[in-house]
Amino acid sequence: xxxxxxxxxxxxxxxxxxxxxxxxxxxxxxxxxxxxxxxxxxxxxxxxxxxxxxxxxxxxxxxxxxxxxxxxxxxxxxxxxxxxxxxxxxxxxxxxxxxxxxxxxxxxxxxxxxxxxxxxxxxxxxxxxxxxxxxxxxxxxxxxxxxxxxxxxxxxxxxxxxxxxxxxxxxxxxxxxxxxxxxxxxxxxxxxxxxxxxxxxxxxxxxxxxxxxxxxxxxxxxxxxxxxxxxxxxxxxxxxxxxxxxxxxxxxxxxxxxxxxxxxxxxxxxxxxxxxxxxxxxxxxxxxxxxxxxxxxxxxxxxxxxxxxxx
Length: 311
Fold this sequence. Notes:
Blueprint: H1 2-14, H2 19-56, H3 59-62, E1 66-67, E2 72-73, H4 76-107, H5 110-124, H6 128-150, H7 161-184, H8 189-197, H9 203-212, H10 214-229, H11 233-238, H12 256-263, H13 273-304
Antiparallel strand pairs: 1-2
């Protein structure tokens, strides 16, 4: 790293460049540092996971037996719980985000619109533990009352996959809304004038405009899904942390992140649990990264690189 820094400082001293070249050269070492940290984290997880992958093989991903007493570690319930919760969260967050963006841009004056966007930035920065406490005090009792009212066979406490998904959805509505609004607000005014001239009002105009930004909508959904996969604190507080293959969203379940939180304090008692948790973290990291990168690629391909809005 020192050699890289020295090289670019020497180049800057010898060459006369414009401000963009200077900024590119000055920022490159920091990019290298960030990439080195990411690669380092991946390698640490991979090295510490090898024992588990060697012992369990593919059963680590497709098996349902998590038994510290027999040193058997398989994460299928946690893996399915992670994706189950994330899918429901995205499905809940998407229509609310679309409605919020439409309401903000179609019916609010510019001053109020900017206030709403500032509030969304603030909401996106709220610590996840705050959402977790809110979920524990409001969402979980609401789910429990829903179960009791309909007499359903489900979690008696209200802690469930659904509760975790609702908390995740509300955590990510500001994030998703801001991504979509950045593109929605840049639709050329000439297009809007054309819609008015053709008599497109209300729902028709909204449908056309969302058709123009469908790439941003899809990209935001994938980014939020990847973000949900890696969420820890809030989900651990409300999902129930029951290691079973929950088919109903009203049943308690577990995610990979909550699995790690629940068992990390017991690693010193068992020989292979540490490696299993590292392997679970590696699976979570790869899954989250893939969906985030896919979301960024979709947003760039369909919104920026496509040559037209959403095309």
